[in-house]
Every structure is written in C-alpha cells, then in structure tokens.
Automatic annotation (TrEMBL):
Organism: Polaribacter irgensii 23-P
Matching InterPro entries: START-like_dom_sf
SUPFAM superfamilies: Bet v1-like
Source taxonomy: Bacteria, Pseudomonadati, Bacteroidota, Flavobacteriia, Flavobacteriales
Stored CDD domains: SRPBCC_3 (cd07820)
Protein known as: Cell division inhibitor
Length: 155
C-alpha cells in the first residue's frame, strides 16, 4: 500500500484571525477550487467548523465525472490547525492537515495531504501521470487565488 504526500506552504500578508476565519469556513472552499471542478457543498453549513462535522460535496475532479465526497473534520485547534479526512470519495485514503501560524508581516499557511489512490497497482501506475499533476494543479490554483484575495507576502 503506497501512501503519497502533497506538501504546500504559503505566506500571506493577513492577520491570523483573518486567515483562520477564511480557512475554517467550509463555504470558502468553493472560492479556492477551480471552476471546472464544479465544486458544490450539499451539506447544510450553519455553524463554524467543529470536530465531528460531516461535510458532503459534489465535485468533478476528472473527465467530467461527478463524484460525491464526504469528509469529517476530525481535529481542530482554533487558530492553529484542523484536519479533514475523507470518509467517502475518490481516494482510498485522504488525510488533510491545514496549519496556520503567525509570522512577521502575516501568516504562513501549510497543507499536508497524505493520500492513497484507489485501484491498487493500476492506481499507482497512473498516479505520476494523472493524479499527482492534478493535485498539484488544484493546490497551485488555491495558492494563486489566495494571493488574489489577500495580496502577496513581502517580508
């Protein structure tokens, strides 16, 4: 069983409070997801992020195929980090840690995603050609969109 890791860091010129407020609101995930993925939350989101929260999405990650994705928020330490884990969806495993910390002149945001592709050896064969580049594209888009929303970090 091969588990892959995607690791991204970004610095933004905003306060810790602003970063946390944006990142911990599930509704903002649509804002930082490429339009072609047709991302939609189907759960009712009527309160701030909390441990045990179940969030259901419909997303079109590849080849126009709509996919249901169900994740659970498993850990939260306010203004420090939260973790979402896929309960149902396109991956055999998806464990996404979101960290945020105050730095001089802004915040540093860090995403660490541990994931396993489905379909055994076939999934491992297509991973470097399809899955990994697609995830890189999605998270690069997120970084770009966050810079558009909040500005570029200059130390």
């Amino acid at each position: 069983m091969k588990i892959y890791t995607l690791h991204k860091k970004q610095q933004l010129p905003i306060s810790l409070e602003t970063a946390w407020e944006f990142l911990s609101n599930p509704k903002n995930l649509k804002v930082i997801t490429p339009d072609y993925m047709s991302f939609n939350i189907v759960s009712t989101i009527d309160r701030p992020l909390y441990t045990g929260q179940i969030i259901q999405y419909i997303v079109t990650p590849l080849l126009g195929i709509k996919t249901k994705w169900v994740s659970e928020i498993t850990h939260i330490e306010e203004k420090k980090y939260f973790v979402d884990e896929q309960m149902y969806g396109p991956y055999a495993l998806w464990h996404h840690k979101h960290f945020v910390k105050e730095i001089e002149g802004g915040v540093e945001m860090e995403d660490i995603i541990d994931y396993k592709v489905p379909l055994g050896i076939l999934g491992q064969i297509v991973h470097p050609f399809i899955v990994k580049p697609k995830l890189e594209e999605i998270f690069n888009y997120r970084q770009q969109k966050l810079e558009e929303l909040f500005g570029s970090y200059k130390k």
